[in-house]
Amino acid sequence: MDLFDIFVSASFWAAVLRIASPLIFATMGELICERAGVLNLGIEGIMVAGAFAGWIAVWAGLPLWGGVAVAMLTGMGLGLVHSVLSVPFGLSQHVVGVGMTLLATSLTFYTYRVVLPEVSSPPKIEAFQPLDIPGLSQIPFLGEALFSQTALTYAGFVVVALVAWVLYRTPLGLAVRAAGESPAAVAAQGLSVTGIRMGAVIVGSGLMAVGGAFLTLSAFDSFFFEMVNGRGWICIALVVFGAWKPGKALLGALLFAAFDAFQIRLQQTPMGQVVPYQVFLMMPYVLSILALVVMSRRAEVPKALMVPFNKGER
Amino acid sequence: MTMRLEPIEAPGLARRAGLPALAIAGTFVIGALLAMIAGGNPFSVFGLILKGAFGSKFAVLETLNRATPLIFTGLAVAVAFRAKLWNIGAEAQLYAGAVMTAVLGTGALAWPSWALLPMVGLAAMLAGALVLLVPAILKVRLGVDEVVTTLLFNFIFLLFVGYLLEGPLKDPMGMGWPKSARLIPEARLPRIIEGLRLHWGFALGLIAAVTVWVIERRTTLGYEMRAVGQNVDAARFAGIPVTAVILKTALISGGLAALAGFSEVAGMKGALTKDISPGFGYTGIVVAMLALLNPLGVVLAALFVAAIFVGADSMSRAAGVPTYLADIMLASALLLMVLAILLTKFRVRRD
């Protein structure tokens, strides 16, 4: 396969959207949390929990969208725990986040073993099927590349638009952004910084869990222990890369997914015979670090990110 | 209804000791409830954990052996967190030390044991230190959050180890398994007492804990690390070379984590494989927090955590409750402990 052939194949671009989808949900979730002033390092564990919860719910008989809802609620529950510890109590967001990832991951693995004690390989479910958008999916090339995705992928793009609209066009979004920039001003308006931040963490965590559920309900049809594999940490890098803006973060997720899809195909070229496959697998993580380095000077970090707000303190 | 936190002027002993004890108790309540969900009797489950960890000479030695790498990674995290350097990459630094041990210990240096072991240990520390130095430099020079970079390095480094074990370091006699050749006898950490399955890595861990304690309490660097951790702006204003202190902290922390890899390869396993660490680097965070970042406390916390892991392994075989119960209890202990410590210093007031 030639390098040029990779970019002109519709299946490549379809793969880009598929790989980007879980990142899009989780990155939007993290972005909401951070815009409100809370770094949510529970993301990796919440994605694991969401992937499992959605899958096990569908395995138990719920419809696919029911699985998505269960994943979302699971994420929101974990988000509630995170937010109680990190917002009103103002505990170190680093420690709480890492603790939440450890807790959510181990709870997930424990539940898996309790529910499915005897299985050697996890059962499969009937996952989301590609949904051809009438008309658009008939367009040559573009149709196959962009308009033959699963419903969850389309939903991801709707979520980006929704998050952008709420953040920049509604009073609620203004309050969320202000909570991350100058919480004292929010409190002076008579609004509860604690409430806004907790709400942002809970909703954001719900989105992260849906990102995880995309893996089990759409990308694959089963649950594996290592399936999230650092995607959560990559999403944290994507939020920085996207300068805390939904549109730019979406662009970052797509760029990242394009790179990932490219390296997978590169492994099948003559180059893949010479270069060890681990080098290709490293690229997403290396790229994330590079993105952080490149953006470090330019990014406009929310001013109150990781700064707890205690009313009465001035 | 809103709540706010009010500092307590002089917290009493009941508060300072009682709340952390309550956190540990809460951990066991969570463990008991989950054990019941899995169909186990909580009392027999905890009994089995206790028996599995301390019930026989073999069990005790197993617990001490499991605690050894956790002492090193716990110290690595404690030192770094003290200076607010969020090193979540002890896993990668551990593997850096393990790789260096395998490179130098499989025959590259044919030295006598008394010269080879210190050399390999120091080289391992250097490797781990360098692995953490990169994120630390990115932090101080460019302001890149080290949590994310150290986490991402864990994935990168584990892939690198996978490559080494299938490529340059692969044992030609290994029947195709991705493992390194065995260490030469001179590169193996001997047992402390002949006949007992406990190697000098454990003693090295105790020495490291005391050394770190001395550095933190008795040296200028220790004082500067604390100052940077408490308030970086104030430290800078007081003329402390903040950048240098953070970089030195990174070197010490990375070196300590690498000793876990050295001790596992040279002491326990005798060869490098991809699975020498079932997450010792991450568990080190729990160990350090339970120890309240105190280097001597790290030893106790590592023993406690190792006991729960070793005990849960044998409990799981006997009672059919998944061993992940141990991981849940430790994650809960971490979260409840940081909350308890906060509440020893602050009172919750409702407005």
Automatic annotation (TrEMBL), chain A:
> Which keywords annotate this record?
Cell membrane, Membrane, Transmembrane, Transmembrane helix
GO cellular component terms given for this protein: plasma membrane
Please provide, alphabetically and separated by semicolons, the GO molecular function terms listed in this UniProt record. transmembrane transporter activity
Places the protein is found: Cell membrane
Membrane spanning segments where? Answer: 6-26, 38-58, 64-87, 94-112, 146-168, 198-217, 278-296
Q: How does it sit in the membrane?
A: Multi-pass membrane protein
Which superkingdom does the taxonomy of this entry point to?
Answer: Bacteria
Instruction: Specify whether Transmembrane is a keyword of the entry.
Output: yes
Do you know which Pfam families this protein is assigned to? BPD_transp_2
UniProt key word Transit peptide: no
PANTHER family for this protein: ABC TRANSPORTER PERMEASE PROTEIN, SUGAR ABC TRANSPORTER INTEGRAL MEMBRANE PROTEIN-RELATED
- Write down what this protein is called: ABC transporter permease
Organism equals Rhodalgimonas zhirmunskyi
List the top taxonomic levels of the source: Bacteria, Pseudomonadati, Pseudomonadota, Alphaproteobacteria, Rhodobacterales
